[in-house]
Amino acid sequence: MIQAKHCDLCKFPNRDLKIGLTCSLTNTKPIFKSKCTDFEFDNSIKQDFTDLLDEIENILDSKTYVYLNFILLSTLGLLIILGAYFELRDSSVVEFSYLGYKYFSISYSFYFLGTTAISLAFWKLSKYKRTLKALKAEKRYYNNTLKAYNLSIDQLLKNEKRS
What we know:
Blueprint: H1 3-8, E1 13-16, E2 20-23, H2 43-61, H3 63-90, H4 98-148, H5 153-162
Antiparallel strand pairs: 1-2
Helix pairs in contact: 2-4, 3-4
């Protein structure tokens, strides 16, 4: 376990630029392996955890929107690319004139537009997945810390309501 992260959840961390992280109860650097004997959850951590759960729920609520957006944007991009391909394929006359160049550049602009729509679809989907993965990793960290002290999420939140 990373002690600095563990101490971030406690009421008693003391940070100094010269010394580093120390415990304000013992005035020493943390030396525990998996759990501290003087550990006590900070009340702000309980609020942070509640906010984290709300944020995960909001992200999961947007799942349908994100996947629908992905399907629509990628389908639109593919249709634009296919339309440009068939338009270029059907035009068998190659002209080396300004009009031919303009037609050629407009057709390839549609390729670019289609590729951009597909890229945007994948970017939004990957952003959603990265955000969800990061939030779940943070929740897992909280759960592991709670498990070290034989507590559950419900017990932590119930203790907050009693206070």
